[in-house]
Amino acid sequence: MTWTEPSALERQAILRQARTIAIVGASDNPSRASYFVSTYLQAETTYDLWFVNPRLTELLGQKVYPSLADLPGEPDVVDVFRKASDLPQVADDAIAAHAKVLWLQLGLFDQDVADRATDAGLQVVMNRCLKVEHARFHGGLHLAGFDTGVIDSRRRR
C-alpha cells in the first residue's frame, strides 16, 4: 500500500480521536520545537502525554520513558522529533508499540517509512506540526496561520 497524505478532515479526526500522544525526541531545552509543542499540548489539551528520550528522566513534571517499548500503554499517536536517519527505527518501534498514528514533524518526510507504517495499519502524517494542526482545528490560529492572541513582536508598555 502506498502512503497518501491525509486530508485536513482526516487530520482533524486523528486529533479528535487521540487520547495518548508519545513525543519521541522530547527535549528539556526550551529552544527546541519538541519542548514548545510539549508545553502547548500540556497546557491546552487533555491528551495524556508520554515523553520519550533515553537521556531524560523527567520533563515538565512528568516521567520520561527511555523508549516506546517502555510506555505504560499503547499510544494513539507517536509524534516524532528525530533526525531523518532515525525514522525507520522509530517507525518500527511505533509499529511494535501498537500505535495508531505515526506523526512526523515539520521537515520530516520519508516515503518508504510511511509506506511501511501504512502497510502495518498505522495512519501516517508527515511534514506537519501537531501543535499547529491542533491549534488550527481548535480555534487557536488566525486565518493567516499564526496565533494573534499570544505572539506579538511589540513591547508591552
TrEMBL record:
* InterPro entries found in the cross-reference section: CoA-bd, NAD(P)-bd_dom_sf
* Organism this protein belongs to: Barrientosiimonas humi
Gene3D superfamilies, A to Z? NAD(P)-binding Rossmann-like Domain
Q: Which domain of life is it from?
A: Bacteria
Task: Indicate the segments forming the CoA-binding domain, all copies.
Answer: 14-108
Q: What is the name of this protein?
A: CoA-binding domain-containing protein
Q: Which SUPFAM superfamilies is this protein grouped with?
A: NAD(P)-binding Rossmann-fold domains (SSF51735)
Q: A Pfam family in this protein?
A: CoA_binding_2
